[in-house]
Specification:
Blueprint lengths: L1 H19 L3 H12 L5 H14 L7 H15 L3 E5 L5 H7 L7 E6 L2 H14 L5 E5 L2 H4 L3 H5 L4 E6 L6 H10 L3 E9 L2 H5 L1 H9 L3 E9 L6 E9 L2
Parallel strand pairs: 1-2, 1-4, 2-3, 4-5
Antiparallel strand pairs: 5-7, 6-7
């Protein structure tokens, strides 16, 4: 798995970027703009999956784990959801297409280039009325959610950013009183690349009830999993 990632993420990507004079993320967006149906979030998600499974690997949640994400969002039916790690906007589009009327998703992205791509992806999918993209570090944005973005509590949180931020950001969400009894956290990549500190924290914490969903790394046959942690208050 690591060797395949190094090949896809570093060697192959750098060569292609140099030859084409653009980033992989820009290539994904261009493929969507040329091949997906504007205003159709399902078409956008399917087109990204097609590109990343056939042409270039990318760190979206992917369709296999995406179905676990879908099921969780449908079960929670959140009014206010938070995503940490927007990347190209794949999961923001995937989540928002399932939100009920009047619900909103706040998605946080640290990388300005990824944020710019995601903004275009979200608008092309036609879900910009449901999604607010917040650019900056999660540890700065989380404490601003209540006052600046009028969030009372979060019904659903999707963690898919830097793995070493999973635990501190989960603690920060609690310290800022953003979790209520029944708030659901879903964390991606807990096996590969892995988030052992996070698993240790939520599984040993009596305030969380955890469920593990074994799966595979997006677009690869490498073992991975998602962890659901329900906040018990």
């Amino acid at each position: 798995g690591t060797a395949a990632l190094i090949w896809n993420e570093i060697i192959r990507e750098k060569v292609t970027n140099f030859i084409m004079n653009q980033s992989k993320e820009q290539r994904i967006l261009n493929f969507v703009l040329q091949n997906a149906v504007r205003g159709d979030p399902c078409s956008v998600v399917d087109t990204i999956d097609k590109y990343c499974s056939q042409k270039e690997w990318a760190m979206n949640v992917g369709n296999e784990k995406g179905k676990i994400l879908d099921k969780t969002v449908e079960e929670v039916s959140p009014s206010v959801a938070l995503e940490l790690g927007t990347y190209c906007g794949y999961s923001a589009v995937r989540i928002s297409r399932l939100l009920k009327a009047g619900a909103r998703l706040l998605t946080v992205e640290f990388n300005p280039e990824f944020a710019a791509i995601a903004k275009q992806m979200i608008e092309f999918a036609g879900v910009q009325d449901k999604v607010k993209l917040l650019e900056g570090p999660s540890e700065e944005i989380i404490p601003q959610l209540k006052k600046k973005y009028e969030v009372d509590t979060l019904d659903f949180v999707f963690l898919d950013h830097w793995k070493d931020r999973y635990t501190p950001d989960t603690i920060l969400l609690q310290e800022c009183n953003l979790l209520r009894k029944g708030s659901v956290l879903l964390a991606d990549n807990v096996i590969f690349p892995g988030a052992p500190d996070f698993l240790n924290y939520v599984r040993k914490n009596p305030r969380f009830q955890c469920t593990n969903y074994p799966s595979h790394l997006e677009y690869m046959q490498v073992e991975d999993a998602m962890e659901k942690a329900v906040f018990l208050g």
